[in-house]
Amino acid sequence: MNNSDIDEVDENVTAELSRLRDSIDNIDAAVVHMLAERFKCTQQVGHLKAKHQLPPADPGREASQIARLRQLAENAKLDPAFAEKLLNFIIAEVIRHHETIAAGEDQ
Ligand SMILES: C=C(O[C@@H]1C=C(C(=O)O)C=C[C@H]1O)C(=O)O
């Protein structure tokens, strides 16, 4: 392998890295937009719950969501434990929002 071969490999690697990073950036943008839509829905749920004196958290609903998401993750060859951790992280933030709404700090 001479010097010009090395330059060529480097160019190919750079191009491949850049192509993959473009896709990663698109996926990250989609995740942000999807999360924003999810939080718009959960905010409405929070207001509905506050209006009807329902508790911010619903552990039964959470358990079925986790079971469903773990199965989806397994089918998609994503680590189910990671999927569960991610959902729990998001739900914890939603519950925090619902508590804020219920306390009337959201108006
Ligand atoms: C959105 C809700 O409130 C909470 C948040 C959930 C979620 O983010 O998916 C699920 C259950 C609740 O603990 C709900 O009850 O549906």
UniProtKB/TrEMBL annotation:
GO molecular function: chorismate mutase activity
Any one Gene Ontology BP term: chorismate metabolic process
Keywords assigned by UniProt, alphabetized: Isomerase
Gene3D superfamilies: Chorismate mutase (1.20.59.10)
PROSITE patterns xref list: CHORISMATE_MUT_2 (PS51168)
Keyword presence, Transcription regulation: no
InterPro entries documented for this protein: Chorismate_II_sf (IPR036263), Chorismate_mutase-related (IPR051331), CM_bact (IPR010951), CM_dom_sf (IPR036979), CM_II_prokaryot (IPR002701)
Protein name: T-protein
Protein's gene: tyrA
